[in-house]
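Researcher: Here's the sequence for the chain we discussed earlier.
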Amino acid sequence: MLEKIKLPSVTDIILAVIGAVLCGLGCGFINYASYGMDSIGLFYDGIRNVLRLSGGQIGTASLIVSFILSLFLWFADRKYVSFGSIIYIVMYGTFANLGSMLWEHIILNDFTYIRVLISALGLLTLYIGLGIYIAIDIGVDAFTGVMLWLCNITHKDMKIVKIIFDLGLTVLGFLLGGTIGIVTPVSILIGGPCISFFTKRIQAIYFRKSIAKHKEGGTTQQ
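Model: Thanks. This is the structure I predict for it:
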């Protein structure tokens, strides 16, 4: 007998789309500012360079990489590929391209402080998006899936695997022609704490509302 696929609730799907869209836009903003990327964005940028895609097509590179990694995970351990993973891949790639193109159509003086502000806005948008996506817990992106798979087969702590994984992606991205800048070390230093902060805040709001709704439903039924 085939196992029935359990789909997340409509609310979860909506929030997942919002989170993935914000992540994609954040990546696009950071890419446009050209002051470096986080480790995953840097790897995408390197792949974009190898494939000879335009500067605004980093989202296309992410779609290609994520599809290949998801295909690998499907055969290696398909529990790391879910409906939520598909939402993230499609929304992130699409809106990373749009995030880059958006600023190209806004007339701005090419001042350093403007690009710094765009980079900061990109990081904030990215971390809020990740906070939303992690909080609702309906799946993981392809890179997180690979990290979890590596933890499982190596029996190593996630923190150790993530550090090695991020360093590896940074080196590979740089060797492939990705842009390293001030955003790269900044994201390494503040990424974890910021994502954790937003995840906890969003979980507190989301689950508090879910519990309240559940109680109201229970009261009505009585």
